[in-house]
Design a protein that fits this description.
Structural class: alpha+beta
CATH topology of the largest domain: Alpha-Beta Plaits
Bound molecules: uracil
Distance between the termini: 34 Å
Strand content: 25-35%
CATH architecture of the largest domain: 2-Layer Sandwich
Number of domains: 3
CATH superfamily of the largest domain: Pseudouridine synthase I, catalytic domain, N-terminal subdomain
Number of strands: 15
Length: 246
Protein backbone atom coordinates (compact mmCIF):
# COMPACT_ATOMS: atom_id res chain seq x y z
CA UNK A 1 0.00 0.00 0.00
CA UNK A 2 1.48 3.39 -0.94
CA UNK A 3 1.43 6.15 1.70
CA UNK A 4 -0.65 9.26 0.89
CA UNK A 5 1.35 12.32 -0.22
CA UNK A 6 1.70 14.95 2.47
CA UNK A 7 1.42 18.73 2.11
CA UNK A 8 1.70 21.70 4.42
CA UNK A 9 -1.72 22.43 5.86
CA UNK A 10 -1.48 26.17 5.11
CA UNK A 11 -0.61 25.46 1.46
CA UNK A 12 -3.45 22.95 1.09
CA UNK A 13 -6.03 25.31 2.58
CA UNK A 14 -4.74 28.33 0.65
CA UNK A 15 -5.03 26.32 -2.58
CA UNK A 16 -8.58 25.36 -1.65
CA UNK A 17 -9.44 29.07 -1.37
CA UNK A 18 -9.69 29.43 2.42
CA UNK A 19 -7.42 32.50 2.48
CA UNK A 20 -3.78 33.48 2.47
CA UNK A 21 -1.27 31.36 4.38
CA UNK A 22 -1.15 34.09 7.02
CA UNK A 23 -4.95 34.02 7.39
CA UNK A 24 -4.87 30.23 7.68
CA UNK A 25 -2.21 30.41 10.38
CA UNK A 26 -4.58 32.82 12.15
CA UNK A 27 -7.38 30.23 11.92
CA UNK A 28 -5.05 27.56 13.33
CA UNK A 29 -3.98 29.81 16.24
CA UNK A 30 -7.64 30.58 16.97
CA UNK A 31 -8.35 26.82 17.30
CA UNK A 32 -10.59 26.72 14.18
CA UNK A 33 -8.78 23.78 12.52
CA UNK A 34 -9.47 20.29 13.88
CA UNK A 35 -8.42 16.83 12.72
CA UNK A 36 -10.51 13.97 14.10
CA UNK A 37 -11.76 16.48 16.66
CA UNK A 38 -8.26 17.40 17.91
CA UNK A 39 -7.00 20.96 17.68
CA UNK A 40 -4.43 21.60 14.90
CA UNK A 41 -2.49 24.49 16.39
CA UNK A 42 0.09 25.03 13.65
CA UNK A 43 -0.85 25.45 9.99
CA UNK A 44 2.81 24.90 9.05
CA UNK A 45 2.51 21.20 9.92
CA UNK A 46 2.35 18.67 7.13
CA UNK A 47 -0.77 16.58 6.68
CA UNK A 48 -1.30 13.37 4.69
CA UNK A 49 -3.57 13.87 1.67
CA UNK A 50 -5.77 10.91 2.55
CA UNK A 51 -8.92 10.70 0.41
CA UNK A 52 -11.02 10.74 3.61
CA UNK A 53 -9.46 14.01 4.82
CA UNK A 54 -12.63 16.04 4.04
CA UNK A 55 -14.52 13.78 6.50
CA UNK A 56 -11.92 14.27 9.23
CA UNK A 57 -10.73 17.86 8.99
CA UNK A 58 -13.05 20.66 10.03
CA UNK A 59 -12.69 24.43 9.71
CA UNK A 60 -14.83 26.37 12.15
CA UNK A 61 -16.81 23.13 12.54
CA UNK A 62 -17.51 22.73 8.80
CA UNK A 63 -16.16 19.84 6.71
CA UNK A 64 -13.15 20.55 4.49
CA UNK A 65 -13.93 21.13 0.80
CA UNK A 66 -13.18 18.32 -1.69
CA UNK A 67 -9.46 17.78 -2.30
CA UNK A 68 -7.80 18.58 -5.64
CA UNK A 69 -8.69 15.98 -8.26
CA UNK A 70 -12.28 17.24 -8.08
CA UNK A 71 -14.72 16.37 -10.84
CA UNK A 72 -18.26 17.78 -10.90
CA UNK A 73 -21.40 17.23 -12.95
CA UNK A 74 -23.54 20.30 -13.24
CA UNK A 75 -26.99 20.74 -14.73
CA UNK A 76 -26.32 23.88 -16.71
CA UNK A 77 -29.37 26.12 -16.87
CA UNK A 78 -30.12 28.39 -19.82
CA UNK A 79 -28.61 31.87 -19.71
CA UNK A 80 -25.26 31.16 -18.04
CA UNK A 81 -21.92 31.22 -19.86
CA UNK A 82 -19.09 28.68 -19.73
CA UNK A 83 -16.34 31.22 -19.16
CA UNK A 84 -14.16 32.52 -16.36
CA UNK A 85 -14.34 36.13 -17.45
CA UNK A 86 -17.25 37.11 -19.72
CA UNK A 87 -19.90 39.58 -18.59
CA UNK A 88 -23.17 38.21 -17.20
CA UNK A 89 -23.93 35.08 -15.21
CA UNK A 90 -21.19 32.41 -15.40
CA UNK A 91 -21.37 28.68 -14.61
CA UNK A 92 -18.73 29.23 -11.91
CA UNK A 93 -21.24 31.47 -10.13
CA UNK A 94 -23.33 28.33 -9.48
CA UNK A 95 -20.53 26.88 -7.31
CA UNK A 96 -19.53 27.89 -3.77
CA UNK A 97 -17.79 31.26 -3.83
CA UNK A 98 -14.59 29.84 -2.27
CA UNK A 99 -14.22 27.34 -5.12
CA UNK A 100 -13.46 30.23 -7.48
CA UNK A 101 -10.15 30.69 -5.65
CA UNK A 102 -9.08 27.04 -5.93
CA UNK A 103 -5.66 26.26 -7.35
CA UNK A 104 -5.56 24.36 -9.67
CA UNK A 105 -8.75 26.04 -10.87
CA UNK A 106 -11.91 24.24 -11.91
CA UNK A 107 -12.57 24.39 -15.66
CA UNK A 108 -15.45 23.22 -17.77
CA UNK A 109 -14.82 20.12 -19.88
CA UNK A 110 -15.62 21.70 -23.23
CA UNK A 111 -18.41 24.24 -23.37
CA UNK A 112 -22.13 24.54 -23.83
CA UNK A 113 -23.55 27.70 -25.42
CA UNK A 114 -25.23 30.23 -23.17
CA UNK A 115 -28.61 29.11 -24.59
CA UNK A 116 -27.92 25.36 -24.25
CA UNK A 117 -28.86 23.50 -21.08
CA UNK A 118 -27.85 20.12 -19.69
CA UNK A 119 -24.96 18.00 -18.50
CA UNK A 120 -21.72 19.91 -18.07
CA UNK A 121 -18.62 18.44 -16.44
CA UNK A 122 -16.03 20.50 -14.58
CA UNK A 123 -12.70 19.41 -13.20
CA UNK A 124 -9.41 20.72 -11.81
CA UNK A 125 -7.61 17.69 -13.26
CA UNK A 126 -6.09 18.86 -16.55
CA UNK A 127 -5.08 15.34 -17.63
CA UNK A 128 -8.62 14.04 -17.11
CA UNK A 129 -10.08 17.02 -18.98
CA UNK A 130 -7.87 16.31 -21.98
CA UNK A 131 -8.67 12.59 -21.85
CA UNK A 132 -12.39 13.40 -22.07
CA UNK A 133 -12.19 15.93 -24.90
CA UNK A 134 -9.51 14.10 -26.90
CA UNK A 135 -10.98 12.74 -30.15
CA UNK A 136 -9.07 9.54 -29.41
CA UNK A 137 -11.23 8.87 -26.35
CA UNK A 138 -14.37 8.77 -28.57
CA UNK A 139 -16.58 10.19 -25.82
CA UNK A 140 -19.98 10.71 -27.44
CA UNK A 141 -22.19 13.66 -26.50
CA UNK A 142 -25.96 13.38 -26.92
CA UNK A 143 -28.17 16.43 -27.44
CA UNK A 144 -31.96 16.70 -27.44
CA UNK A 145 -32.96 19.11 -30.18
CA UNK A 146 -36.13 21.10 -30.80
CA UNK A 147 -36.48 22.48 -34.32
CA UNK A 148 -38.31 25.42 -35.80
CA UNK A 149 -39.48 23.51 -38.88
CA UNK A 150 -40.37 19.83 -39.43
CA UNK A 151 -37.54 17.47 -40.36
CA UNK A 152 -37.35 16.86 -44.12
CA UNK A 153 -36.40 13.18 -43.77
CA UNK A 154 -32.96 13.40 -45.36
CA UNK A 155 -31.08 14.80 -42.32
CA UNK A 156 -30.06 11.47 -40.76
CA UNK A 157 -28.30 10.36 -43.96
CA UNK A 158 -26.60 13.75 -44.45
CA UNK A 159 -25.35 13.82 -40.85
CA UNK A 160 -24.17 10.19 -40.96
CA UNK A 161 -22.31 10.68 -44.24
CA UNK A 162 -19.12 12.14 -42.81
CA UNK A 163 -19.13 14.67 -45.67
CA UNK A 164 -21.12 17.55 -44.17
CA UNK A 165 -19.16 20.79 -44.29
CA UNK A 166 -20.09 23.57 -41.90
CA UNK A 167 -19.99 27.12 -43.21
CA UNK A 168 -16.46 28.52 -43.16
CA UNK A 169 -14.80 25.15 -42.47
CA UNK A 170 -12.60 23.08 -44.74
CA UNK A 171 -12.80 19.74 -42.91
CA UNK A 172 -16.08 17.77 -42.99
CA UNK A 173 -17.74 16.68 -39.78
CA UNK A 174 -17.27 13.18 -38.48
CA UNK A 175 -20.46 11.13 -38.85
CA UNK A 176 -23.26 12.16 -36.47
CA UNK A 177 -26.16 9.93 -35.47
CA UNK A 178 -29.67 11.36 -35.59
CA UNK A 179 -32.64 9.69 -33.88
CA UNK A 180 -36.01 11.15 -34.80
CA UNK A 181 -38.57 11.58 -32.04
CA UNK A 182 -41.24 13.45 -33.97
CA UNK A 183 -41.42 16.11 -36.72
CA UNK A 184 -39.63 18.79 -34.74
CA UNK A 185 -37.80 16.81 -32.04
CA UNK A 186 -34.77 14.59 -32.35
CA UNK A 187 -31.56 13.50 -30.62
CA UNK A 188 -28.11 13.84 -32.15
CA UNK A 189 -25.03 12.01 -30.92
CA UNK A 190 -21.64 13.33 -31.90
CA UNK A 191 -18.00 12.75 -31.11
CA UNK A 192 -16.67 16.21 -31.91
CA UNK A 193 -17.27 19.51 -30.19
CA UNK A 194 -16.98 22.18 -32.84
CA UNK A 195 -18.18 25.71 -32.18
CA UNK A 196 -22.02 25.78 -32.13
CA UNK A 197 -21.86 22.43 -33.90
CA UNK A 198 -25.46 21.25 -33.53
CA UNK A 199 -26.99 24.64 -34.36
CA UNK A 200 -24.74 24.97 -37.43
CA UNK A 201 -25.48 21.41 -38.59
CA UNK A 202 -29.20 22.15 -38.70
CA UNK A 203 -28.57 25.54 -40.32
CA UNK A 204 -26.62 23.65 -43.02
CA UNK A 205 -29.74 21.61 -43.84
CA UNK A 206 -32.06 24.64 -43.83
CA UNK A 207 -33.54 24.36 -40.34
CA UNK A 208 -33.17 26.25 -37.07
CA UNK A 209 -32.62 24.92 -33.55
CA UNK A 210 -35.00 26.54 -31.06
CA UNK A 211 -33.93 24.53 -27.98
CA UNK A 212 -30.86 22.42 -27.20
CA UNK A 213 -30.22 20.25 -24.16
CA UNK A 214 -27.34 17.81 -23.56
CA UNK A 215 -28.50 14.76 -21.60
CA UNK A 216 -25.53 12.39 -21.91
CA UNK A 217 -21.70 12.47 -22.04
CA UNK A 218 -20.12 9.10 -22.86
CA UNK A 219 -22.14 6.63 -20.79
CA UNK A 220 -23.02 9.21 -18.11
CA UNK A 221 -26.62 10.46 -18.09
CA UNK A 222 -27.72 13.73 -16.56
CA UNK A 223 -29.37 12.48 -13.35
CA UNK A 224 -33.15 13.06 -13.37
CA UNK A 225 -32.96 14.40 -9.81
CA UNK A 226 -30.25 16.99 -10.55
CA UNK A 227 -32.20 20.24 -10.92
CA UNK A 228 -31.15 22.99 -13.34
CA UNK A 229 -28.40 25.01 -11.64
CA UNK A 230 -27.44 22.19 -9.24
CA UNK A 231 -24.17 20.25 -9.23
CA UNK A 232 -22.82 17.05 -7.71
CA UNK A 233 -19.31 15.77 -6.97
CA UNK A 234 -18.64 12.85 -9.33
CA UNK A 235 -17.70 9.47 -7.94
CA UNK A 236 -15.01 7.27 -9.51
CA UNK A 237 -17.89 5.24 -11.02
CA UNK A 238 -19.35 8.39 -12.64
CA UNK A 239 -15.95 9.19 -14.19
CA UNK A 240 -15.62 5.60 -15.42
CA UNK A 241 -19.12 5.87 -16.95
CA UNK A 242 -17.96 8.82 -19.09
CA UNK A 243 -15.46 6.51 -20.78
CA UNK A 244 -17.80 3.53 -20.88
CA UNK A 245 -19.38 4.59 -24.18
CA UNK A 246 -23.10 4.78 -24.46
N1 LIG B 1 -23.73 22.40 -30.29
C1 LIG B 1 -24.23 23.64 -30.20
O1 LIG B 1 -24.65 24.22 -31.18
N2 LIG B 1 -24.25 24.24 -28.98
C2 LIG B 1 -23.82 23.63 -27.86
O2 LIG B 1 -23.89 24.21 -26.77
C3 LIG B 1 -23.31 22.34 -27.97
C4 LIG B 1 -23.27 21.73 -29.19
Amino acid sequence: MSAARSVRLDKLLANLGYGSRREIQGLARAGALRLDGADLGDAGDRIALDPDLPDRLTIDGAALDPLPGLCLMLHKPLGVTCSHKEAGPLVYGLLPERWRRREPPLSTVGRLDKETSGLLLLTDDGALLHRIISPKAQVAKRYRVTLDRPLAGSEAAVFASGTLLLEGEARPLLPVRLDVEDDTHCAVTLMEGRYHQVRRMFAAVGNHVTALHRDRVGGLDLPADLAAGAYRVMTAADVAAVFAGG
